[in-house]
Amino acid sequence: MGRDYTLYAIFKGLVIYLLPFAVLGWLLNIFWPALAIALALKLAWHYYFQFRLSRWLWDSRTMLPPKALGLWTDIYDGIYRTLRRNQFRRRALTTLLKRFRQASEALPDAAIVMQEDGTLIWSNKLAQIYFGLQWPSDSGIRITNLIRQPRFVDYFNAADFSESIILGSPAHSSMELDIRIMPYADNQYLLVAQDVTQLRKLERMRKDFVANVSHELKTPLTVMQGYLEMLEDPERMPVKQLHKAIGDMQSQTERMQNMVSQLLELSRIESSSPDSFSHEVNVSQLIATVLREVELLNAEKQHHIDLDLDADLSVYGSEEKLRTVIMNLVNNAIKYTPSGGELRISWKRKRLGAEFAIKDNGPGIAAKHQQRLTERFYRVDKDRNSATGGTGLGLSIVKHALDYHRSHLQLYSIEGQGSRFSFLLPSELVVSAKPDSE
Ligand code: ADP
User: Fold this and answer.
1) How far is the C-alpha of 88 from the C-alpha of 122, rounded, in Å?
2) Which parts of the sequence belong to the Histidine kinase domain (predicted)?
3) Adjacent-strand bridge partners of 353
């Protein structure tokens, strides 16, 4: 466009403007008054556009500049362009900020930005949940006033963030957080917290598991070692004691074998991938097979077993896993009920699926133990159960096999009166669901 705003050009423009007034004034012999009028008109013209400019800038709501003439057209245009450019920049920045916020909200971790002294600048939603922050009212407050655990305060004040720290969440007592602080931008810190509750639980479970297995194997091994030491000199051992030693060693070996095979079974069930449940299982037949297998055990105990089975009721599932479940429950009922007991096994359609139940009139289980029965190695009476060869793994296998079938173990038991263990397989696993029978 080639706008010329040198002093020379402005002066030239003024001379050209004044020239006709000067000539006319000279001809009419009013040279100075004519020039004064010309200058006054010019001034009034400028004042007018200046006034319009300030009206537009301060009072008008529109971005479009008012109409102007001459030099003022360029001034208005210039301001308009600068405003537009700033508006674009602001929009771009707002979009960027919005995207950054969205990205930080999508993070699976809590994030807090703070000053070097711990003053909170910004936090994402997860941080507000994990640390119980009230946003924006907590903005500007020091982190050590919000997370007051002495371990965290010491960690923050020491300013050595080469390692993370694991803390309980101030807002949720059962939640454990892995907190890491990183220097960020100029004199700022970025705090990232990850929920490690599940991870820590698994870690503890793994440690407990190893400790339990070692402990469980240690007892039979110690017994065997003791006998083996005695057997170093078999001649001096009375025959009766020798028989007892061999008998005990045999039962301890059986116990260890039993435990190892149960552990293998547990890990097999735990690691099996979900089934499409295309295989039909006739549970009544399965119960009959299990009962044949435990005949010998029951012959010792002489329990009366009453059956109430729906022979046509089949389910989709894993035959092997359902057999394990039923076998464990039947085995326990026979094992823990004193001789000559009454057992009742039922397999029936219910409103929400198909239910297996086994009821006995054995010793029952005290309420305080009931929640923990499916934990690995959990036994109600360790001494008595060691004598019965129990490992405390049976019901934990049952739990996993039932998880696999989207079901869970239910127990109704009154100490001294007996127990009823049951599980309900959901309707979607029942083959050709008939109308409700209950
Ligand atoms: P175990 O190998 O010891 O039988 P389980 O996991 O099968 O382990 O059972 C856990 C505990 O639950 C047993 O030690 C026993 O004390 C108790 N229990 C299981 N079934 C019964 C039952 N029918 N009657 C009484 N107690 C039972």
Assistant:
1) 25
2) 212-429
3) 350, 426
pLDDT tens-digit readout, 263-309: 999 888 888 776 667 789 999 999 999 999 999 999 999 999 999 99
Between CA 359 and CA 347 the distance in angstroms is 12
Tell me how far apart the alpha carbons of residues 218 and 426 are, in angstroms, rounded to a whole number: 41
Cβ neighbour number for residue 181 with a 10 Å cutoff = 21
Instruction: Answer whether 216 contacts ligand 1 (Cβ < 6 A).
Output: no
Rounded to the nearest angstrom, the distance between the alpha carbon of 358 and the centre of ligand 1 is 13
Round to whole Å and give the CA distance between 338 and 330: 14
Q: Specify which residues 179 forms β-bridges with.
A: 165, 193
Taking residue 167's Cβ as centre, other Cβ atoms within 10 Å add up to 18
What values do phi and psi take at 89, rounded to 5?
A: -60, -40
Residue 10, helix vs strand vs coil: helix
E-assigned strand segments in 6-164 = 110-115, 120-123
Residue 182 · residue 192 · CB < 8 Å: yes
The number of residues making up the chain comes to: 438
User: Which residue's structure tokens are 């020798």?
Assistant: 242
**Do 346 and 424 contact (CB within 8 A), yes or no?**
no
H or E segment and range at residue 304 = strand 304-309
Residue 4 has pLDDT above 80, yes or no: no
The encoded tokens of residue 12 equal 């030239």
Atom of ligand 1 nearest to the CA of 262: 2
Residue to mutate (ligand 1; options 358, 372, 379, 423; most atoms within 8 A of CB): 379
What is the arithmetic mean of pLDDT over 134-146? 90
Distances (CA, A) of 8 to 15, 216, 407: 10, 104, 94
The pair of structure tokens assigned to 128 is: 């507000």
CA dist 402 to 10, 184, 346, 390, 397, Å?
94, 49, 17, 21, 9
362: Cβ below 6 Å to ligand 1?
Answer: yes
**Residue 112: other Cβ atoms inside 10 A:** 27
Q: Calculate the alpha carbon distances from 307 to 311, 328, 363, 422 in Å.
A: 11, 17, 21, 14
Q: Closest Cα to atom 2, ligand 1: which residue?
A: 390
pLDDT digits (tens, 9 = 90+) for 177-214: 999 999 987 789 999 999 999 999 899 888 988 888 88
